[in-house]
Amino acid sequence: MNRTVATGATALVVAVALSGCSLLGGSDGALPAPSVPPTASRTPAPTATATEDPDAAHIEASATPRAPTPVATEAAVPDPVLTPIPAGTVLTEGDVASPKGSIHFHYRVVADGDDTFTAQYTGVTSSLPVPIGVGFFERERQVGDGLTYPGVGDAVLGGPTPAPVSKDVPLDGSGVDPSGLVTLVVSSAADAGQTDLPIEIAGGKVLAVAPVRWSVPQRQTNVHPVDGGARSNAAGPVTATTASGAPRSYTVARDDLIGDVAARFGISVKALVWLNDDVQVFGGDQYLYEGTTLNLDPLAR
Question: If we measure between CA atoms, which residue out of 191, 99, 94 comes closest to residue 136?
Answer without folding.
Answer: 94
